[in-house]
Specification:
The chain contains ten helices and six strands, in the order H-H-H-E-H-E-H-H-E-E-H-H-H-H-E-E. It is mainly alpha-helical. This is Aminotransferase-like plant mobile domain-containing protein.
């Protein structure tokens, strides 16, 4: 769940939690929102990875979660071809040991796919169509097909946090959580433009273990205490986005009109032509190394 660049070594601060899960009785295990922590770690990993240019750079966080998410929602993007699904069974020791949604992928056999590189994936993203997105892969019928005996209770234990307005926390990392920008995934009304969330100040989002250990941590501790206290109320009614209206498909065009004016919309290959001048698009990221096939990975429509 929390991979790092230390290979097969475990982060010391995680050992306490691993021992608690391994040796404590179920009723005595600390009830921690691992889902929100894993998501925070994944968000931070995405931020860090898109800025790395070293040949030995690695991707940390929880790559498995991102991989399974893409299989569920992006049906044509690197999606494996299923040949056979073997259900893990319907008799379990308790509801915790029942299968998860991810069990579908770990118990299936797939055709061996031809390995593709970064350029191929970039092109696939460029031609991707909205109709290829599976916005709600977890309907009652689909879940019944996957797990006739029911899903593990852990899959929905943290549902009280799914629509929270609070920022996510993992270790010293604070990440913005913005469900109000993709309410369609919950089959709920999408407001256009989406309401503002709780952006994380740049100086706090830039925290890293290396920098914090080298400097005094008093100010950092005070800031973290503030975010931790706000998380304690993450499931309170006034901390949740409204969920009383269903999604309206008519709002899609309006949403896309707003979205295309504000966000990165496609990978952009920049091929300069001799004798012509160009306005270089602002990618929002550092340029890649000289000699790479393209220098400006993203094109923003706004100035």
């Amino acid at each position: 769940m929390f991979t790092s660049t230390h290979g097969d070594c475990v982060e010391p601060r995680l050992i306490e939690y691993a021992m608690d899960i391994a040796y404590s009785k179920i009723e005595d295990i600390q009830e921690i929102s691992y889902g929100s922590a894993v998501l925070a770690g994944l968000y931070r990993a995405n931020c860090d990875s898109c800025m790395r240019i070293g040949k030995k750079s690695s991707y940390v966080g929880c790559p498995l979660l991102l991989n399974l998410w893409s299989y569920e929602y992006l049906s044509t993007l690197g999606h494996p071809t299923e040949t056979f699904f073997k259900h893990p069974g319907s008799v379990y020791k308790d509801d915790v040991d029942a299968p998860t949604v991810g069990s579908y992928w770990t118990n299936s056999q797939f055709k061996k796919e031809k390995q593709v590189g970064y350029d191929s994936y970039s092109q696939s993203i460029d031609i991707f169509r909205p109709c290829w997105v599976n916005w709600n892969p977890y309907t009652r019928d689909k879940l019944q097909q996957r797990a006739p005996g029911g899903l593990s209770s852990l899959c929905t234990r943290d549902r009280k946090f799914w629509l929270t307005k609070r920022n996510l926390i993992y270790d010293i990392y604070v990440e913005e959580y913005a469900p109000q920008r993709f309410m369609r995934q919950f089959d709920l009304e999408q407001r256009v433009p989406p309401p503002l969330g709780n952006p994380v100040p740049e100086e706090i989002h830039a925290w890293s273990r290396r920098r914090c250990e080298a400097n005094s941590g008093w100010a950092r501790k005070q800031s973290m205490d503030t975010y931790i206290e706000t998380w304690r109320a993450a499931s309170d009614d006034d901390s949740l986005w409204p969920s009383d209206r269903p999604y309206d498909r008519k709002s899609y065009k309006q949403y896309m009109k707003w979205y295309l004016q504000t966000d990165v919309v496609r990978c952009h290959q920049f091929v300069p032509q001799q004798g012509q001048s160009y306005t270089v698009p602002d990618s929002g990221y550092r340029s890649l190394e000289a000699g790479a096939s393209w220098q400006h990975p993203c094109l923003k429509l706004r100035k």
